[in-house]
Amino acid sequence: MPKGHLLYAQSGGVTAVINATASAVLTAARAHKVTALWAKNGILGALREEFYDTRKLKAAEIKALAHTPGGAFGSCRFKLKSIEQDRAQYERLIDVFRAHDIRWFLYNGGNDSADTALKLSKVATELDYPLTCIGVPKTVDNDLVVTDCCPGFGSAAKYTAVSVAEAALDVAAMADTSTKVFVYEVMGRHAGWLAAAAGMAGDGEDLAPHLILFPENAFDEAAFLAKVQSVLTTVGHCVVVVSEGIRHADGRFVAEAGGKDAFGHSRLGGVGPMLAALCKDKLDVKVHWAVPDYLQRSARHLASKTDLAHAMAVGKAAVELALAGKNGVMPTIQRVSDKPYRWKIAPHPLSEIANHEKAMPKAFIRKDGFGITKACRTYLEPLIRGEAPPPYGRDGLPAFVRPSLPLLPKKLAAWSK
């Protein structure tokens, strides 16, 4: 095994269990007697030469990361251009890696992060630098291909299902004299996995959620209003769950707000309140809406035990794959059986994962387009199974860890874009 350092970084929206992956990475690196560095704010930390030496983290802090949400040393939304567009950017990364003797790079994120790891693996070879790059899966959107599910999704799914079930009881209790239609907006730009998870709150058309709107289906205003009215007539109240990324038939986002984010994705403006207003105006009923936003991806207090196990397993596997020289791969979760639920970790080429998205299968969406099928329930149930609560302090709040480390001294000139 060549000598050198391992660099770990987090990218994109953080989750309730991404630090659990980090905890497993650091634990595995120590077991193999490899020094692990942690980049501040993802790939930007590598470009800026901002690294933390995790050898200074106490074992208890590393263990506590597993029950702490967020990104312990920051994440980022930053998409590397192609090497043809900005070769200097890649040369800078290799210069930084060479200066700090970084031989293994683990990038923990979603689709764009897989793309970054793939690009770096190719560029390092082209520039003749011995670097092994591993993409480590994470995303509440659950839209990475090949892997059965993505760490972070199971916990966000559990939070969604529980929140919808609880809110539905509230709405049912007050519907006679108050809110008739409640709209709950979840994350999911192109894939409706989180919206589908809400369907676990109730099984049957008369049980909430009464309507689920998926990005995979074109939004039909007339059909939507007719279904809401039908539910109001038969049930007396209606709970709607909508994915932020639903589109019109022509492909436009229903909640298009204008502009692009750092990854080139269209900015969305809040479809939940839009649909609530539509119901109020067209059906003349009292409405309420909620957008959990960051809450759904950071709710470590309601994490899925299965999700936590997945997150730690991919972290450990990523280190082992890196040290074995498996360049340009990602440890993926492969389902072996549903009942009993069994799974394993298997490496897969990043070239077959990056820049691909996994949408909801048609077999998972009810024929009327407003709910989930039994097959979808079979898929989702084990992913939200089990509880893994964090330890609580005397103040009644979770005992999250907030590690503090000094940055390593820089060896190169400052990076300028």
Structure overview:
The structure is a single chain. With 417 residues, the chain is an alpha/beta fold. The protein folds into 2 domains: 5-152 and 300-356, Rossmann fold, CATH 3.40.50; 154-298, 3-Layer(aba) Sandwich (Rossmann fold). 34% of the residues lie in helices and 17% in strands. The chain contains 12 helices and 13 strands. α1 runs antiparallel to α3 (59-65). The longest helix has 22 residues, at 153-174. Mean pLDDT is 94; it is low at 258-263.
Arrangement of strands in the largest sheet? 3-2-1-4-5
From the alpha-carbon coordinates, what is the Rg to the nearest angstrom?
22 Å
**Count of folded domains:** 2
What overall form do the CA principal axes indicate?
Answer: elongated
Head-to-tail CA distance between termini:
35 Å
Give short descriptive properties of this protein.
417 residues, Rossmann fold, 5-stranded mixed β-sheet, 4-stranded parallel β-sheet
Structural topology:
Layout: E1 5-10, H1 18-31, E2 35-39, H2 43-48, E3 51-53, H3 59-65, H4 87-99, E4 102-109, H5 111-126, E5 132-137, H6 153-174, E6 181-186, H7 193-198, E7 211-213, H8 221-234, E8 238-243, E9 256-260, E10 266-268, H9 271-283, E11 287-290, H10 294-298, H11 305-323, E12 329-337, E13 342-349, H12 374-380
Parallel strand pairs: 1-2, 1-4, 4-5, 6-8, 6-11, 7-8
Antiparallel strand pairs: 2-3, 9-10, 12-13
Helix pairs in contact: 1-3, 1-11
